[in-house]
């Protein structure tokens, strides 16, 4: 059984610690929502799972009980110690993971903003894996983009995140929420909102609503071979989203590429971003 809210609070109280806002520690304790997340992930028996920000290990233990192998990245030493002590009988060392065991990586999951950490990569060992996590809000966007852009071995991402971030992932051209991450998601994956979670599903209750999303990569869907310069081009151009394309990229160049220089970045569809990059950004 997943940990109850009473058990979560008792683990922290007994150690004299409190949830840390700086680490985005809002623990998902609603068992119905946990079941929705795992049902969406549809993990095969013995699947390898990456979990980021396990906290006290509610989701971790649920997946271990189901026989999955978990690589749990936890930056907070206090939380890592809770996971370790509660699962001492099923800890594994990096490179020696197995179904029903957890490899605890006490480090940031990312090396900078665009690469998984070396320790996380070592624990995963180049094998196919699935991200299943109640993500710390500050880590969500860079982690999801990195996995989608650079790690084809990630079979899918099933996460709870801030709803505002979820809206950006799902946004269409012309909407206020539309931005670089919207373009990435639209080109590389199918994104589905599984549920909307009110603050009361978490402890401590955050000041924002959360969303549960399924991100399923499209095999062979990469429309741009050189993704890194494409992503940088989109990011750079969107950084001046209130300006017209002609002001950002040059009026004559934009017109010669077949685009109206008076258009603004947020009006371009993902397919148009690919076309614009091919003509103006790939040199």
Could you characterize what this model shows?
This protein is an alpha/beta fold and 283 residues long. It folds into 2 domains: 5-217, Rossmann fold, CATH 3.40.50.150; 227-281, rRNA adenine dimethylase, C-terminal domain (Helicase, Ruva Protein, domain 3), CATH 1.10.8. The protein contains 12 helices and 10 strands. The strands form 2 sheets. The protein has an 8-stranded mixed beta sheet, sandwiched between helices. Strands 1-9 form a two-stranded antiparallel sheet. Helix 6 links the parallel strand 6 (129-134) and strand 7. Helix 6 packs across helix 8 (180-188). The model has no long low-confidence stretch (mean pLDDT 93).
Mean pLDDT figure: 93
Q: CATH superfamily name of the largest domain?
A: Vaccinia Virus protein VP39
How far is the N terminus from the C terminus? 56 Å
CATH class of the largest domain: Alpha Beta
Shape: elongated
Helical residue percent? 25-40%
Estimate nothing, just give the exact number of structural domains.
2
Strand line-up in the sheet with most strands: 4-5-3-2-6-7-10-8
What are its keywords?
single chain, 283 residues, alpha/beta, Rossmann fold, Helicase, Ruva Protein, domain 3, 2 domains, eight-stranded mixed β-sheet, two-stranded antiparallel sheet, 12 helices, 10 strands, 40% helix
In short:
By secondary structure, the chain is α/β, with parallel strands linked by helices. The chain has twelve helices and ten strands. The strands form two sheets. An eight-stranded mixed β-sheet has the order 4-5-3-2-6-7-10-8, with helices on both faces. It has a two-stranded antiparallel ribbon with strand order 1-9.
């Amino acid at each position: 059984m997943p940990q109850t809210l009473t058990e979560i609070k008792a683990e922290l109280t007994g150690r004299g610690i409190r949830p840390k806002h700086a680490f985005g520690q809002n623990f998902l304790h609603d068992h119905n929502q946990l079941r929705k997340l795992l049902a969406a992930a549809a993990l095969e028996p013995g699947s390898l799972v990456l979990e980021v920000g396990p906290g006290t290990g509610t989701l971790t233990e649920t997946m271990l009980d189901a026989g999955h192998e978990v690589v749990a990245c936890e930056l907070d030493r206090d939380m890592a110690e809770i996971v370790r002590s509660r699962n001492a009988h099923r800890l594994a060392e990096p490179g020696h993971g197995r179904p029903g065991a957890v490899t605890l990586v006490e480090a940031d999951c990312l090396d900078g903003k665009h690469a998984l950490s070396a320790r996380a990569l070592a624990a995963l060992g180049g094998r196919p894996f699935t991200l299943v996590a109640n993500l710390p809000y500050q880590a969500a966007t860079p982690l999801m983009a990195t996995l989608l852009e650079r790690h084809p071995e990630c079979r899918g991402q099933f996460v709870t995140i801030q709803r505002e971030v979820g809206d950006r992932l799902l946004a269409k051209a012309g909407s206020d929420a539309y931005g670089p991450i919207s373009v990435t998601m639209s080109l590389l994956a199918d994104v589905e909102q599984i549920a909307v979670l009110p603050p009361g599903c978490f402890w401590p209750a955050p000041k924002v609503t959360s969303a549960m999303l399924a991100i399923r990569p499209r095999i062979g869907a990469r429309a741009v071979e050189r993704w890194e310069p494409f992503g940088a081009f989109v990011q750079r151009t969107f950084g001046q989203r209130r300006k017209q394309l002609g002001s950002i990229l040059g009026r004559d160049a934009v017109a010669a590429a077949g685009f109206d220089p008076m258009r603004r970045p947020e009006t371009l569809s993902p397919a148009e971003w690919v076309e614009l990059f091919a003509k103006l950004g790939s040199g």
